[in-house]
Amino acid sequence: MNYLLIAAVLFTLIPVITYLIYILAILKPSSSKIHTPDTQPPITVVIPTYNESEVIEHRIKNLKDIDYPTENIHVIVVDDQSTDNTVGLAAEAFKKYDLSGEVIVKEKRTGTNASVNMGVGEATTDFVVTTDADVTFEPDAVNNALGRLLSDEKIGAVCGELEPIARQDSFTTHSEKAYRDVYGRMCSWESCLHSTYCFNGPLIVMRKKAFSPIPETKGASDAGMALRIIRNGYRCLYESSARFYEYITSDMDQQRRQKLRRSARLQEATLHNLGLVSPEYGKFGLFVLPLRFVMFFIAPVSFFLAVILWSVVLGSINLIWGIGVLVLFGLALLSGQWKSNLISSFIWHQIYLLVSLVYMSRGVHVWQAIERKKV
Question: What's a single GO MF annotation on this record (predicted)?
């Protein structure tokens, strides 16, 4: 029994120490300085699409409405063999809103990563913005991200902050809102150290010269971009003042599918880039990436082993205590059903990370999007 107790303590310490580091980091006041660009150079906006007929016109209109000279914006829609009218609606929207743009239809469906590579490769401007079809930028979002990018030649890319929008309260929206409350502060802290690669893909502003093609079948497109840019000698930063909005599904099954895909692709990108764990990449290679590796792979396994072991250890003393551990765990897990809280969100996050370790092996670079809603 002593061995079980020691094991329970050790498995508990792994996730506790990992997340305690982040908790202490996000409690530290951060700089709120907003960098305003001195110039607004020509930019290319790349939008990968697949069956986006519900939102593509709204997305293009939003680019017309932001505080950026329309004449300095060129949009490239890279369509992944949509089966709806995404291509036609995009072409019509360019004319309707008098915005420079083109639609590239891929010869076969190969996923988002391949679409990003193609779109960035076709860009002729020094600065490129990648985004999704179902989000809406705040008017100053691109300016604030670009201003941060231009503040230092060593910065290769900057991503923005997601503000989730829910049309109705549900367990899934409660969980996502709680998670997003701390996600941005975690990424901002990593940016202060060196870089974060947990980018928000719907708003990334980058120097084209810092980009190199990302693996088409390995990892999330946004994480893949960040890791390649870091490998190329630049920093990748999170900018909380560059805000955009995205609809959150209230459907549990759709959120589960989205979360598993996202977790699996981040894990895949991490494994594919373990070569960045090196002093050559400064604090990112020595601290940020190793800590994320523990968070993505070791902490979720340790967390659930700790719950099981504590139930066994306490149950050997008193059966009621052992059952009580499992009951408390279940109540904590489901508490987000009634009110958004970090404990429930944390447990669900560990579940998604654990399950996605298996899901990762299935290959998730080609996927079906969740329901699309205009923000």
Answer: glycosyltransferase activity
Q: How far apart are the first and last CA of the chain?
A: 55
Give me the residues paired with residue 74 across strands. Answer: 44, 100
CA dihedral 81, 82, 83, 88 (to 10 degrees): -110
Q: Which domain holds residue 67?
A: 1-375
Task: Give percent of the chain with pLDDT exceeding 70.
Answer: 88
- 């700790």: which residue's tokens? 306
**Confidence at residue 257, expressed as pLDDT on a 0 to 100 scale:** 74
CA distance 89 to 11: 53
Arithmetic mean of pLDDT, 126-138: 96
Q: Name the nearest CA neighbour of 196 among 128, 148, 164, 244.
A: 148
Render pLDDT for 294-339 as a digit per residue (tens, 0 to 9): 999 999 999 999 999 999 999 999 999 999 999 999 998 888 777 7
Q: Is the pLDDT of residue 235 over 90?
A: yes
For residue 206, the SS3 value is strand
Compute how many other C-beta atoms are within 10 angstroms of the C-beta atom of residue 139.
12
* Count, residues in the chain: 375
Read off the CATH number of the domain in which 357 is found.
Answer: 3.90.550.10
pTM, two decimals, is 0.88
Report the number of distinct structural domains present in the chain: 1
Neighbours of 131 (CB within 10 A): 25
